[in-house]
Specification:
This protein is of the alpha/beta class and about 325 residues long. It has 10 helices and 13 strands. It is globular. It starts with a strand and ends with a helix. The structure holds zinc ion. The site of zinc ion has 5 residues, from loops.
C-alpha cells in the first residue's frame, strides 16, 4: 500500500442546492453529490444539517482510503472572513450576525474554513479554470442573484473585514427596482433569475400561461429555458426580456472594467449557459460604457468548470488554510 492521499471536503451552499465533493490535493474530484437544501429556519438547524452531510463525506473519504484533513465551505454572504460570521444574509432564511463557521466546527472533528460562495468559486477558477495564469480578474456567477469575485495581482480581494466583491449589489440605477438588500437598482435586480422574473412582472401585456405559472410558483429557474424556447419558435418579443438583462450586465461590467482594468471577466452559473441570448448585446454595451483601451484588452469568457468551481475552490481554500497553519 502506498501513502494515503490527503483530501479536503469542498462544499458549495446555494439558495436551493448544496454541492459537495471530496477533492485531492491535485484537484481531482474523487466523489461528489448535489443535495437539495431542505427548508431550514434557524442557523442551528442549518449547521446540524450541513454537519451531518460533512460527516457522511468524511466517512466516504475514509472508505476511499483517503485522509480527509479539512473542510472548505462557500456560503451566500455577506460573510466576515476568516471568522465565518454571516451578516444578515439576504439569500438565507435567517438574519443577524451568525457565527456559522464556529457552529459547524463545534459539530464535527475537522477544521473548517468558510468564505463567501462567490469567493470560493473564484478560487476554483484561479486554481483550475479560466483564471489560470490571470493576475487581474472579475468573476460573476448568475443564479437567483449574482455572486462576485475580484482578483487583484493574483489574489482574491476581500476588503477590510471580508465583505468586498458584492458585485450583484452594485447600483445600476439608483431610482431602479427594489433589491432584497434594501437598496434600489442593484445589478442583480436586472441580470439574474430574480431580474428575469421582475422584467416579466413589468411586462405590459398579459403573459402566456407557462410563464404566469412559473412566476406564481416562484419557479424562476425554469424561466430561461421557457424564454429561450419561445424565442427559438419565433416569438421574438421575448428577446426584450433578455435585452434588459444584457444592457444592465453590460453597464455593470463596463463600470468594473473602468474600476479594475481586468485581463478577464469570467461569467458562470446556470444563466451563463444562455449566453447566446444576452452576450452579443452585453459586449456592445460594455464597449459604450467603458474606456476603449481597457475594454479592448479585456477578455469576456464563460466558465468551463460549470458547477464544480465552488467545491474545487472551497477545497483549495481548506488545503491552503491547513498548509498555512503547519
Ligand atoms: Zn442589492
Amino acid at each position: 500500500m502506498g501513502e494515503k492521499v490527503e483530501t479536503c471536503i469542498g462544499c458549495d451552499i446555494g439558495g436551493s442546492y448544496v454541492k459537495i465533493g471530496l477533492i485531492s490535493r491535485n484537484g481531482t474530484i474523487l466523489y461528489q453529490r448535489t443535495v437539495p437544501l431542505p427548508p431550514l429556519t434557524t442557523p442551528e438547524e442549518m449547521a446540524d444539517w450541513i454537519s451531518s452531510l460533512l460527516l457522511n463525506f468524511y466517512t466516504m473519504g475514509k472508505k476511499l482510503h483517503t485522509v480527509p484533513i479539512g473542510v472548505g465551505i462557500g456560503i451566500p454572504g455577506p460573510l466576515q472572513y476568516p471568522e465565518g460570521i454571516l451578516h444578515d444574509p439576504p439569500n438565507l432564511p435567517f438574519s443577524g450576525e451568525i457565527p456559522m463557521r464556529q457552529f459547524i466546527e463545534e459539530r464535527i472533528s475537522l477544521p473548517v474554513i468558510m468564505d463567501n460562495d462567490a469567493t470560493t468559486q473564484t478560487l476554483g477558477e484561479l486554481w483550475l479554470g479560466e483564471g489560470i495564469g490571470i493576475k487581474n480578474l472579475i468573476y460573476l456567477s448568475f443564479g437567483t442573484g449574482i455572486g462576485g469575485g475580484i482578483v487583484i495581482d493574483g489574489k482574491v480581494y476581500r476588503g477590510t473585514i471580508g465583505l468586498a466583491g458584492e458585485i450583484g449589489h452594485m447600483t445600476i440605477d439608483y431610482h431602479g427596482r427594489p433589491c432584497l438588500c434594501g437598496a434600489r437598482g442593484c445589478l442583480e435586480t436586472y441580470a439574474s433569475l430574480n431580474g428575469l422574473a421582475q422584467s416579466l412582472l413589468e411586462w405590459k401585456d398579459p403573459l402566456p400561461h407557462d410563464l404566469t405559472m412559473a412566476l406564481r410558483s416562484k419557479d424562476y429557474g425554469s424561466l430561461p429555458a421557457l424564454l429561450k424556447d419561445k424565442i427559438e419558435s419565433g416569438e421574438v418579443q421575448w428577446q426584450r426580456i433578455w435585452d434588459i438583462f444584457a444592457d444592465a450586465l453590460g453597464a455593470g461590467i463596463g463600470s468594473l472594467i473602468n474600476l479594475f482594468n481586468p485581463q478577464k471577466v469570467v461569467l458562470s452559473g446556470g444563466l451563463s449557459y444562455y449566453s447566446n441570448l444576452f452576450l452579443p448585446r452585453t459586449l456592445e454595451k460594455i464597449h459604450t460604457s467603458s474606456f476603449r483601451g481597457a475594454a479592448k484588452g479585456c477578455l469576456i469568457r464563460i466558465s468551463k468548470l460549470k458547477n464544480t468551481s465552488g467545491i474545487i475552490g472551497a477545497a483549495h481554500l481548506a488545503f491552503t488554510w491547513e498548509e498555512n497553519k503547519r
